[in-house]
Task: structure prediction
Amino acid sequence: MLLRKEVIQPRTGQQMKPWLPLVGDVDVNAENDRRNAFVNWLVQPDNPYFARIEANRIWSQCFSRGIVDPIDDFRDSNPPSNEPLLSDLAKDFADHGFDRKHLLRTILNSRTYQASYEPNEFNREDEIYFSHQRPRLLSAEQLLDALNHVTGLDQSYGNLPTGTKATHLPAPDLVKVDFLKVFGQPERSTVCACERTDDSNLGMAIELFNGPTVHAKLRDANNRFRKAIAAGQGVEEALTELYMAAVCRPPSEIERNAALEHCQKRDNVADGLEDLCWALLNTDEFLFQH
Result:
């Protein structure tokens, strides 16, 4: 049974009707759920709010900055940096039934998203027009998933199924993972995107340099490089696999020679690869989206 709580206008003493932005008061059958009326209004193609706000939010997830920024600050005195772009994205999003996958595919296939992070002499100072990518630190969940991918290990999240990714966690209060909290996972006690912090701090550096999560994964006998060496794989092949997992490329000649020389100095080749994996995990190339 749906419980209702009516609101009485204190000045007139009359019961207030349901109200929708740009529409005003609406009459809803007492047997119907009033939320349905709100949802029906929300997904109307001519709704001037929903498509623009959602398109801007998804854009910000790809570029670390919204066309309207901060992304929750839609007002006349904070206009979009590119009004035609936001309008076209919103229209395309609405025309395709508010399909987030379609919108994301459109953004990822764009020349803007595929632009280099290296600026040139003309756009070096640009921070609002998306003329080049702005490197940004991986989110807490992305970073933990990436760390697990590099080491080839699964993370345990309480009673959730094995193989669950941090980015798939339904809510942060289901499991407590110190690594995620250090890197800015929000409590999600509000709907404001500002609750998540992406500023680097000393705790992050300590966690990467000598934190228990990274240390345990590097020492785990079932991690990627230790299993490879135990199976008889050559150190150069294991090194290349490690680079591909961490930064999606093989090591350069200089990197390969330095790594092989380092491994030869260690009594145990796996320990040498542990050092190299630790170094890779602390590079900007691994930690940042470019």
